[in-house]
Amino acid sequence: MHGREPAPRRRGPRTRAIVLIGFMGAGKSRGGRPLGEQLGGAIVDLDKRIEGRAGRKVQEIFRDSGESAFRHAEHAALKELLMELRSGAERIVALGGGAFAQTRNARLIEAGDVRTVFLDAGAEELWRRCRQQAEQQGSERPLLSSRGSFRELYETRRPHYLKASFRQETGGQTVDEIAAKVIQALGLGRRRVRRGEKQ
Ligand code: S3P
What we know:
Elements: E1 16-21, H1 28-39, E2 43-45, H2 46-54, H3 58-65, H4 67-84, E3 91-94, H5 103-110, E4 113-120, H6 123-137, H7 147-161, E5 166-169, H8 175-186
Parallel strand pairs: 1-3, 1-4, 2-3, 4-5
Bound molecules: shikimate-3-phosphate.
The site of shikimate-3-phosphate (S3P) has 11 residues, from helix 1.
C-alpha cells in the first residue's frame, strides 16, 4: 500500500521570529516598539534594513527605480534577515505593508518557526492614520495616491494578511494595549526575545 510520503526533515536551525504584518498605517513599526520593550528585545524593521542595504530611503527607491525594484530589494533583505535569525531566541520583525502579500515572501516566512501577527484596522481608519502621519512628517508613503486606490489595495491584500497565526484589532487602542494583547495571545513572557540590534 502506498501512503503519503512524509515531508522531508529540514536540516539545521529554523528561523525563530514573531513577524508583524498588516496594511500601511496598521502600526507595525510603532506597535512593534512597545512589544519589543515589554519583551526585553529590540524589533527589526524590514524597511529600515532595505534602506540600509540600498543607501536610499524607501520613497527614493520607488521614485527612482520603481516598485518592482523595491520588491526585489524587499525580498533579498527578508531572505537575508531570516537566515540571520536561524538560531537563538525569538526576534520581533516588522514588515512593510506589501511584503507578506508577495507569495515568495510568505513562503519564506512560513518555512521558519515563525508566528505572524496581523495588526488589523478598517480601510478608512488606516487611510486617516496614513494621511495624519504624512502631514506630521511632511513625507508621503509611495502608495498613498488616492483614497480609492488605497482601499482597493487593502481589499486585495486582506486575504493574505488573514493567513496570519493571529489577528489583533488595533482601532481605539494605544500601542501599549495592543502590545499587551499580542503578548498574552502568543503566550510570551519577558526576555523571550533576543536583546540587541539597533536600527
Ligand atoms: C508598502 C508599505 C510601506 C513600505 C513601502 C511599500 C506597501 O511600509 O514597505 O512603501 O506596499 O504597502 P508600511 O506598511 O510600514 O507603510
